[in-house]
Amino acid sequence: MTSFAIKTIAACALAAGTLGAFSTAHAHITLEYQVAPANSSYKATFKVGHGCAGSPIRQIVVTLPPGVRGAKPMPKPGWQIEIERQPAAPGAAGEARRISWTARTREDMLPDAYYDEFVLQARLPGQSGALYWPVSQVCEQGRADWTEVPGPGQKLSDLQAPAAYLEILPAEGGGGHQH
């Protein structure tokens, strides 16, 4: 294993531990892995811990941050996937800009008392820094929009309904495996 790979793994573990403790206490939809290298393939696993004041979840909608490319959602039994794409040149498919999972029936909805994950894979932007993933949680009765992004001088912990957060680390070396 290269020294860059070891440093990256160590930085990811440290950041994930720090952010993981913070995010579970303050946000209701978070990413399982909250750090990743720039320009890498990333498995975004959105952790959903509860419904809306006792009401089951019938839909999860993820808005992809700018620069995220090639997004592919993971199917879930009982849930229908819809991909909203950006306009593209004639004859070409545009990049995904929003992905939603919708329960097919009431029995497929996620009850408030249960936890689940919604997953997609995508290529991250080449620049390091913070990346926010707005997520809407639509319930049988009500909804929660986890879409707030900190402004200048504001902390993520100051927000009432923060978007899922990912820290992109600088890409070094360039010798990694690419798809």
UniProtKB/TrEMBL annotation:
It holds the Pfam family DUF1775. Residues 1-27 form the signal peptide. Residues 28-168 form the YncI copper-binding domain. It comes from the Bacteria. Transmembrane segments: none annotated. Keywords: Signal. This is YcnI family protein. It comes from Variovorax terrae. The lineage of its organism: Bacteria, Pseudomonadati, Pseudomonadota, Betaproteobacteria, Burkholderiales.
